[in-house]
Amino acid sequence: MSRPIKPSSSRRPTFIHLICAATIFSLLVFLIQSYFFTSTPSKSLNVEDVQILSDFQSDVQQCVANRGFGLTAHTVDHCKLVLKFPKGTNSTWLNPQFKTYEPLEYTYDICEAVLLWEQYRNTTTVLTREYLDARPDGWMDYAAKRIAQLGAKDCSNRTLCEEHLNPILPASPPFHPRQFEKCAVVGNSGDLLKTEFGEEIDSHDAVIRDNEAPVNEKYAKHVGLKRNFRLGVRGTAKNMVPILKGSDDEVLVIKSVTHRDFNKMIDTIPNPVYLFQGIVLRRGAKGTGMKSVELALSMCDIVDIYGFTVDPGYTEWTRYFSEPRKGHNPLQGRAYYQLLECLGVSNDFPLNVLY
Ligand SMILES: *[C@@H]1O[C@H](CO)[C@@H](O)[C@H](O)[C@H]1NC(C)=O
Ligand SMILES: *[C@@H]1O[C@H](CO)[C@@H](O)[C@H](O)[C@H]1NC(C)=O
Ligand SMILES: *[C@@H]1O[C@H](CO)[C@@H](O)[C@H](O)[C@H]1NC(C)=O
């Protein structure tokens, strides 16, 4: 089944304001915090509180119905929602490991998502020496988890761990909350080629990109030319040098673990390189794209995201600069993206989803 990615009448669709002014959204955050941080959560929510959460959910449901191209949202409780693809959605992607097709239903905890983002607003998301020193198991166990190919199960040989981490470990946070007013996060979706947001993307105070995303004249009108941050997974280390070429101050943030390939590469480039420091919480999607949104939320007052859509037939995950890649899970991505878009219905989120 072919689905239009957006109504043809509106090129500039949605606004998602994630978190911001002191209005309904702050109230929501407050409610959710009391809900999560009390030992008897049910007692801390009175009838009106539950009403506010329910109303918010209804808005999200309505939004999914209007913009989800067939996706529907179903309430489980006042925090949980299930997003369902229509029966018969052609999910051709087979998970080779489990020999199953992608599920057509995804459950999300909106309260958790909102809380997570609110936490990111106040934290810096780069691993620092300060953080390792302060954390009781910081140097021994935690540091070891962030180094691949360590050849040791912990950091009892501190010298060894220092050698691995020193090139990417600032003493204190290099960026602070709300350092930038407006940021653009540019995903790698092939759908970017259907729009021309290049200039708009470049008008942001900072632009965050993912992995091997090329930035050059060929794609300029679709993805812009400005480059400030790039989040990369370890597999991209070997291709990273030519990609960073010509942009000495683009900050590279390594997504999960550092390893020898990165360290070798870091020696050869002038760019600042850090290790991402995420808040550990369960959540719906953990791709590089979502991490880059989290990175942005930790540094920017307003975050606009581009290029996170999945191809209309939901059959594969396309990238603007390469052939479609089988193996990514398009339905999960599509559902999470829709949730993200629709959480903005309160109009107080600082995150704007711009296809
Ligand atoms: C699903 O898509 C695949 C490849 O795109 C196609 O071969 C197949 O016939 C489709 N199945 C249905 C039921 O539309
Ligand atoms: C984040 O910081 C703001 C302002 O300093 C504060 O009002 C808010 O409660 C903080 N949120 C969290 C989750 O710590
Ligand atoms: C600790 O690591 C350093 C650096 O790799 C190495 O030179 C040293 O021999 C190691 N010490 C022990 C006791 O293994």
Write the layout of secondary structure elements.
Blueprint: H1 24-36, H2 41-44, H3 47-67, E1 72-75, E2 80-84, E3 94-95, E4 100-101, E5 105-109, H4 110-121, H5 129-134, H6 138-145, H7 158-165, E6 180-186, H8 198-202, E7 206-210, H9 220-223, E8 229-232, H10 237-244, E9 251-254, H11 260-267, E10 273-275, H12 288-297, E11 300-306, E12 317-319, E13 322-325, H13 330-343, E14 351-353
Helix pairs in contact: 3-13
The chain binds 2-acetamido-2-deoxy-beta-D-glucopyranose (3 copies).
One 2-acetamido-2-deoxy-beta-D-glucopyranose (NAG) is lined by residues 157, 159-160, 163.
Membrane topology: Single-pass type II membrane protein
InterPro entries: Glyco_trans_29 (IPR001675), GT29-like_sf (IPR038578), SIA1/STLP5 (IPR044782)
Organism: Artemisia annua (Sweet wormwood)
**What is the fold named in CATH at topology level of the largest domain?**
sialyltransferase cstii, chain A
* Main sheet overview: 7 strands, parallel
State the end-to-end distance.
Answer: 21 Å
- What is the mean pLDDT? 78
Question: What is the number of domains?
Answer: 2
GO molecular function, one term: sialyltransferase activity
Membrane topology: Single-pass type II membrane protein
Organism: Artemisia annua
Transmembrane segments: 15-37
